[in-house]
Design brief:
The complex is a heterodimer. Chain A has seven helices and 20 strands. Chain A is mainly β. The N terminus of chain A is likely disordered. Classes of the chains: A mainly beta, B mainly alpha. Strand 3 of chain A pairs antiparallel with strand 1 of chain B.
Chain lengths: 470, 166
């Protein structure tokens, strides 16, 4: 291996790993839609209600409002639909996932006055599904092959000469398919107490776990026969370049912890006010990054040695504080609720990296500060209980603002939600919740603003939650 | 981390502020301050679902292990037979079948009886406007027409109070 190749290898390994950037931090830092069907039906505007086992996720203080022993369990079905526009071509893709999203138990301690309740919950708090499929001809003088010239990949695929120069100069058909899956889960121990009449305080400690997988197949094809000559002089087999293929496979194992403090005050038997402080989550990411690649010519093809480019690293992601406040009013069977959530994404941070240089981590943290912003998200919801039927109908709205500094409102995640619930025999509650979300996103295949996917995303989530109180 | 631990210690160290935990040596509370966010007028069954503590519906019975169990069972049988006799008479002569149907335990009666620890179990289990005779019928009807163990345990409230005397 030449000195140049050794140098390039070191750069790849320690300096220009493809994956760790602000997107990885946001994957952990942006909250999910939770796991409670009643809450989802009300637009997750649940902070000032939280009177069931899902208090561990929304507001720990609400657990003190649980008066009976309670078992809760639920299932979550999510579907992510992406229509991608790429150099004028539209391509649709889909990803879906079904999860056991909640198992919890709440135990109210018998009291003579007030309330003291403990709960243990397993929650799947965020799904990490996603998809993006694109296909279009890039007539520009750029390509992924060229963007990788600071690595050995084009060289090893016989797309350059011995000095690392290539005849490839854009004008290739580019296509790809990204499929993401996984979830972030937590085991949460919650305690809540009525410290003053109608004033509740709760706290919890969560052990986080989870996994994430992102599989990205990318192709550049010479569909217009622009490269009929030899790409690697001295190697006649490289005549008539046809196709370049690169697979990035990212595998995460997540573990970590976080804590949450909540307050809830009920006034005049018809109103509640709640507030929470979500302390920073510390999530350790154990990452495997696998690269495969190949190039095809008219009469020959070659593949990368995957182990030369694949690696394993480990690092921590620290999320910001989140402060939330909300209210709910019950007006003759109609509950109206609303809440605000403040989060400063510039406080997202990488730390304690193994396999990545300190300067690289520092650069990424600086990029986070320059690219991201503070956001104020809001939720609104309503629930009406039809007297005598025990049937409840719900509706809501969720706005999660884009964490990126210069994004306009079309990049905000917006959801309308609905749901129903009913009670069987006075002890078994069954709730169904649905959310329909829509937003836009963009993605760069390489470099910046030269090969962009414009994504129009539609999202569906369906949750069923069963509660048994006795 | 220190802030979190300190916060949790403060929160759970404040048990003396308002909440008073029931101890086995205390008499089991028969009533509990009601949370009326889910008003019974609009929420029906949901009212109990949200507002009635499980230890009111299913009172915790604490028995003295040294007690002669066979003696106690004898006493229960005697008390039970007297109450059954009373029930049959009332059922036949005074109460229409509809009124003997099971009514959910501790729905409105706790509001009527809140703050009193000296009421007997029958008045605790019934609406204040009903007569004593009717109340007895309601309590008994629950036992006869339902397998709900909670209603049976409510009926045993007076006997449980005997335990603390032993």
């Amino acid at each position: 291996m030449s000195k140049k190749k050794i140098l390039l290898f070191l750069i790849i390994f320690f300096g220009t790993n493809y994956t760790q950037n602000f997107n990885d931090a946001l994957r952990v830092g942006v909250s999910g839609l939770g796991m409670n069907a009643r809450a989802l039906g009300m637009g997750n505007s649940y902070l000032a209600l939280s009177d069931d086992g899902s208090a561990s996720f929304f507001n720990p203080a609400g657990l003190a409002l649980v008066k009976r022993l309670e078992f809760m369990g639920g299932l979550d079905i999510s579907s992510f639909n992406n229509t991608t526009t790429f150099f004028g071509n539209k391509t649709k893709s889909n990803a879906s996932q079904t999860l056991l999203n909640n198992v919890s138990f709440a135990f109210p301690i018998p009291t003579i006055r007030g309330s003291l309740v403990f709960g243990l919950a397993y929650n799947s708090t965020k799904d990490l599904i996603g998809s993006n499929q694109f296909d279009g001809f890039n007539s520009g003088t750029n390509s992924k092959i060229q963007s990788l010239l600071n690595t050995d990949i084009p060289y090893d695929l016989f797309l350059t000469d011995d000095d690392g120069n290539t005849i490839i100069n854009g004008k290739l058909n580019q296509s790809g398919y990204i499929l993401n899956s996984g979830s972030i889960n937590s085991w949460t121990l919650t305690g809540a107490i009525e410290v003053y009449k109608n004033f509740y305080v709760g706290g919890n400690l969560s052990i986080l776990s989870g996994s994430y997988s992102s599989d990205f197949d990318y192709y550049e094809d010479d569909t217009r026969n622009n490269y009929q000559g030899i790409t690697a002089p001295g190697y006649p087999n490289t005549t008539d370049f046809r196709s370049f293929y690169l697979k990035n496979l990212l595998k995460w194992e997540l573990e970590g912890w976080n804590a949450k403090l909540g307050f809830l005050y009920q006034f005049n038997n018809f109103g509640r006010f709640g507030a929470t402080i979500q302390f920073p989550k510390i999530v350790t990411v154990k990452e495997k990054f696998i690269i495969e690649g190949s190039s095809e010519f008219a009469n020959w093809s070659t593949e990368l040695e995957s182990e030369d480019y694949s690696d394993e690293v480990k690092y921590d992601i620290k999320t910001p504080f989140e402060v939330s406040g909300g209210f709910s009013f019950n007006i003759q069977g109609l509950i109206l609720s609303g809440q605000l959530n403040f989060i400063n994404y510039t406080e997202l941070e990488f730390s304690d990296a193994e396999g990545l240089s300190l300067s690289y981590i520092s650069d990424q943290n600086k990029r986070i500060k320059s690219l991201l912003r503070q956001t104020l998200n809001y939720n609104a919801g309503a629930e009406y209980t039809i007297p005598n039927l025990g049937l409840r109908i719900r509706g809501g709205y969720i706005l999660q603002k884009s964490p990126f500094e210069n994004d306009d409102s079309e990049f905000d995640k917006k959801y309308i939600t609905g749901g129903i619930g009913f009670l069987a025999d006075g002890v078994i509650g069954i709730d169904l919740g649905y959310a329909y979300g829509w937003w836009k996103d963009i993605g760069d295949n390489y470099d910046s603003n030269v090969s962009i996917t414009f994504q129009d995303i539609k999202y569906h989530k369906f949750i069923i939650t069963t509660t048994y109180r006795f | 981390m220190k802030i979190i631990i300190l916060s949790l210690l403060i929160i759970f160290g404040l048990t003396g502020c308002y909440t008073v935990i029931w101890l086995p040596s205390d008499e089991m509370p028969k009533t509990h301050p009601q949370n009326d966010f889910y008003n019974s007028e609009f929420y029906g069954e949901y009212y109990d679902y949200y507002s009635t503590p499980w230890w009111i519906i299913n009172p915790i019975n604490i028995y003295n292990p040294s007690e002669n169990i066979s003696d106690k069972n004898d006493r229960d049988r005697i008390t039970g037979s007297i109450r059954n006799e009373s029930g049959e008479r009332n059922f036949n002569d005074r109460i229409s079948p509809n009124r003997t149907e099971y009514s959910p335990p501790v729905t409105t009666q706790n509001q009527n009886n809140s703050g009193s620890n000296t009421n007997n179990s029958q008045s605790n289990n019934n609406k204040g406007s009903q007569t004593t005779t009717t109340n007895e019928e309601h309590t008994r009807a629950k036992s006869n027409s339902s397998n709900d163990s909670g209603s049976l345990r409510n009926e045993n409230g007076n006997r449980n109070s005997d335990n603390s005397r032993r």
